[in-house]
Write the structure tokens for this entry.
Amino acid sequence: AVVNAANAQLRPGGGVAGAIHRAAGPGLEEECRPLAPIKPGQAVITGGHNLPNRYVIHCLGPVYGVDRPSDRLLADCYRNALRLAEERGLSSVAFPAISTGAFGYPMEEAAEVAFRTIAEVAPTLKSVKVVRFVLRDEEALRVHEEALARSLP
């Protein structure tokens, strides 16, 4: 599954959501319509439509400084996405850096929340074997690599 950093209405927009909807085609928007709205921290799953991925997991991340507690709501996104992937028996999940674009979450903090949450959930996963981050640029990659290194024992 690929994870969509969605908006509450699960509509095409800018950033990750826009790119996923454009690539998936109009069927994705049609499938999303009855599932909306969702709240910060929530996740829903749809088919992948024209994407190479079988599924899209749509997560609504928190708007930093508005939706509180931001760290818990962001962790819920990762936790709920992994739960949905596990329920479907999926073997891999690809995440963007949820909430770090238009929602203003600082990349360093968001990466730490992501890795801490994935580390907490990982021992309970049976089918999900690969968790990937698909990031927008070299700076995002550097920040995530550093956060990952700090989170490893």
Summary: Residues 70-87 form the longest helix (18 residues).
